[in-house]
Write a structure and sequence with these properties.
With 318 residues, this protein is of the alpha+beta class. A hairpin with a 2-residue loop joins β9 and β10. The strands form three sheets. It has a seven-stranded mixed sheet with strand order 2-3-4-8-5-6-7. It has eleven helices and eleven strands.
Length: 318
């Protein structure tokens, strides 16, 4: 339909509604360090040793730093702190090594905070992968652990591939059964987070769900325990099998081949947009919606900790 010429006569004035603010105007932005520091201190106030609290805070804030705020600090007062208060998670629980076979081990974390325990298991897997080429930790007895992809990504600074599979868990907590991270050569690192396997509607998905249950649940033995989470945490050191230069070139070729455009929309792989989002957070601060920002300020006041406002010197709103 052809456009009509615009009339030169002034249109009658109409009442105008108050403009709706765009999300960037209503979300408070706070520096990354200020947010992680506050969450760390909240965990130490609930008896976590500082090193565990710091790892837990980094794991919890991962969602906010990569564009998945629903799994980030919004869960601090809803899930993690209440479980510490009611004793369902034990802040100082010491892991029990049940079986150690060099490259592989079975560990019971005895209800330690999963935000710390899964990261600790990955660090152990990385150490073994540096020695044997692969490290596999079969894990049970952990509390909610946040995003599996964050824990898998702990392998990336070591030029390793990380894999985390999870089965079981507390009723009412979000399922995040698989996370994987791999170096991508010249491109942003590959980080995959699979959110759920609940909607099993075909044999292929059902088969994958069973694969996760076998590796994470059956192997760790969580089938013998109620309200427990079992995980398989694995690190692979590819440079023990081939040259670092050859792996770098192959990874660059693979991930470079995935980039392109389709119907005017950029085609990207998991990890690309998350890396861009993190860069924005580093430059502008982490966006927090008003209810979450208010909850954190109230928590800081209740624990007699410096507020986010005081740490950042302002709201940080762009």
């Amino acid at each position: 339909m052809p456009l009509r010429p615009r009339s030169l006569r002034r249109a009658p004035a109409e009442p105008t509604a108050e403009p709706s603010p765009i999300p960037e105007q209503v979300w408070q932005r706070v520096p990354i360090d200020a947010l992680i520091d506050l969450v760390t201190e909240a965990f130490t106030a609930h008896d976590l040793p500082w090193s565990r609290a710091r790892m837990a805070a980094e794991a919890l804030c991962h969602g906010d730093l990569t564009g998945s705020p629903e799994t980030g600090v919004a869960e601090l007062t809803r899930l993690h702190l209440p479980m510490l208060v009611n004793g369902m998670v034990r802040p100082r629980a010491e892991p029990l090594m049940i079986a150690d076979r060099g490259a592989a081990a079975l560990i019971d974390y005895r209800r330690a905070p999963g935000l710390w325990a899964v990261g600790d298991a990955m660090d152990r897997a990385i150490t073994r992968a540096g020695r044997y080429g692969v490290g596999l930790m079969s894990v049970r007895g952990v509390g909610p652990f946040g995003r599996a992809g964050h824990h898998a990504a702990r392998a990336l600074p070591h030029t390793m591939i990380g894999l985390v599979m999870a089965a079981g868990g507390e009723k009412g907590t979000a399922a995040n059964p698989l996370g994987m991270a791999a170096p991508a050569g010249a491109y942003p690192e590959f980080v995959l987070d699979l959110d759920t396997l609940a909607d099993v509607d075909n044999s292929a998905v059902a088969g994958f769900a069973l694969l996760v249950e076998i590796f994470a649940g059956v192997l760790s033995g969580v089938g013998d325990h109620d309200h427990d989470t079992g995980l398989m945490v694995m690190a692979i050191a590819p440079t023990t099998l081939r040259s670092a230069d050859g792996f770098y070139k192959a990874a660059s070729a693979l991930f470079g081949s995935l980039l392109g455009w389709e119907g005017g929309t950029p085609v990207r792989y998991p990890g690309w947009r998350e890396a861009q989002y993190l860069e924005q957070c580093q430059a502008l601060g982490v966006p927090l919606n008003a209810p979450v920002h208010r909850e954190l300020e109230e928590l800081a006041k209740a624990l007699r900790l410096p507020s986010l406002q005081g740490r950042s010197g302002g709201s940080g709103t762009p």
